[in-house]
Structure prediction request, 348 residues.
Amino acid sequence: MSHGPLMLDLEGLELTAQECELLLHPAVGGVILFARNCASPEQVVGLVSQIHGLRRPGLLVAVDQEGGRVQRMREGFTRLPPAAWLGDLYDRNPAHGRKVARELGWLMAVELRAVGVDFSFAPVLDIGRGISRVIGDRALHRRPDVVAELAQAWHGGAREGGMASVGKHFPGHGGVVEDSHQALPVDVRRVEDLIMEDLLPFERMIHVGLEAIMPAHVIYQRMDARPAGFSSCWLRKVLRERLGFQGVVFSDDLGMAAAGEAGDYASRARAALQAGCDMILVCNDRAGAEAALDELSDYSDPVGQTRLVRMHGRGHVSRDGLHLDPRWQEAVRLVSGFDESPALALDL
Prediction:
């Protein structure tokens, strides 16, 4: 059974009988975990083993483990700093900032691989302009070249940890005020400015082998009337043809308010895939996920399926062995100095 084009979420800490049936549907290709699914490393190991054991090849298992406000797995995992912390380190000492970024990428990856998770939806490649609250300190820096530099280091570390990376939110969410979880943002800037600034981190990451990209649910008014995640102009002409990207394109969650522009869930699913996505996410709406499944029962994309195979995690290390690893110990020490306010721990 090949990877289907739909990634779903789960209700709790264990698979239910209904979820097992859903995950055997040929249109399903992966599972995204949220904080509600993660009580401890031991529990996550059991849940991921259940998921991987349902099919061959195993379903992809992903999570948002950026650090800072967006870290789903916390209990028993290193508390990771927000991306902007790396930018602050870079401003004080660029070489040290790059080093810590690489070790942070590795640390995130090996801790997730130790519990069987295939990949995280990270790093954020948006520019930290101080405009978008939903991005905020999730952005590495205000300068596109520094975002690219730190992201490349992070990506190198994650790859050493056995994990592919997903750059988001193409072509850049940092220039709009609205939160696409709650509204449909419209970016009115010139296309030339987007290309010179926001696209730069994506372009440079593609050159070093970025494995996957997630587009934004944002309309870039001077390029296309559709949000980027539903736009063949952005995904095929710009991302594939102009930038030469050969990796996986994941949609952002089709349950977000901004995705409603594309219609009901069946219409959203079909529109995102036709625009150029390889896998779509439907989260926190089981009825919507089932509608998407019905729509995609006969869907087939051999090229997309081939791309998705590359997202499986590589290698494995036991948690006991990991904690004895001098590199892990040093990485934990490097990130132990950041100060996170509990008020920022939003479940985005």
The chain has one domain: 6-47+71-335. The first helix runs from residue 17 to 23.
